[in-house]
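Kindly draft a sequence, keeping tokens residue-aligned:
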Amino acid sequence: MKIICIGRNYVEHIKELDSERPDEPIVFLKPDTSILLDKNPFFIPDFSNDVHHEVEVIVKINRLGKHIDKKFAHKYYDEIGLGIDFTARDLQNELKSKGLPWEKCKAFDGATVVSRNFIDKAELGDLNQLDFQLYKNDVLQQDGNTSLMLWKIDELIEHISKFFTLKIGDLIFTGTPAGVSRVQENDALRGVLAGKELFSIRVK
């Protein structure tokens, strides 16, 4: 399986990082080795002093597809989850300043949190109106709604499948809303989608 991530898909997050608004989805990949193992804490890597949490809605692909038209995209997933794209922001800024790829700051071991449970999309109603939150130490830190995405789920699938064949089990991280912040040792992070807590992790 592969992890396909979308950058800069929420306007307020683009603003908080003082980034340029893209003309099309920004796509990058993560290896499966970046997934944080179930019940493990997240260890801040020794190569960064500024790791940020980025909570994101996740789509799990359920069938093989290539060049998928947006009107058929809904047939390629049944489940929605929640996760974190941890980002070594200091390293990312260094790499961006040199025009280099981002993988080292986003795809390192443990940098990807995937909720153990996914929710059947039939239970969620309108997927373009999903509320989701990240709490840090029980304080609301990120509060998002998929209506604010520049490119919605089916549009993302159409775009991604032009370049990559989608396979069963592939995960699409759909972007993060505003409110990203640095994590510190002993932080507790909780992710909530449509009122259901889907992950809870500790930072070490």
